[in-house]
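Q: what sequence does this backbone want?
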């Protein structure tokens, strides 16, 4: 179950006896595309494994390639901010800080590249 469907995640989440299929499974399934189901399951009163899905969100923040798709990252942050859960809001803060740090690093590089192109 390295690439579970949303339905498989829902079944697993509601099973109090379910174990993670293997070590680091939460990191393997932590993709930006799965964020909506993670948020849904965290909010689900029948979910027996909320902690796993919170850790998946943390892994998305750590592993996400912001240069690939900042729009999806912004949508992720907005979805987290809608939550009433302070821990999820903290994850949103951390992701936003990561975006800001990346922008601080990348902006001078992009400006440098633009100057180089104009000189050519």
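A:
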């Amino acid at each position: 179950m390295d690439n579970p469907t949303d339905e498989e995640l829902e079944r697993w989440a509601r099973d109090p006896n379910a174990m993670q299929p293997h070590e680091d499974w939460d990191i393997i399934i932590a993709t930006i595309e799965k964020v909506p189901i993670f948020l849904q399951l965290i909010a689900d009163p029948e979910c027996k494994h909320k902690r796993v899905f919170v850790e998946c969100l943390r892994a998305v923040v750590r592993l996400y390639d912001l240069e690939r798709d900042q729009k999806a990252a912004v949508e992720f942050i907005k979805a987290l901010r809608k939550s009433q859960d302070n821990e999820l809001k903290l994850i949103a803060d951390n992701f936003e800080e990561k975006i800001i740090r990346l922008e601080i690093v990348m902006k001078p590089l992009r400006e440098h590249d633009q100057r180089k192109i104009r000189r050519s």
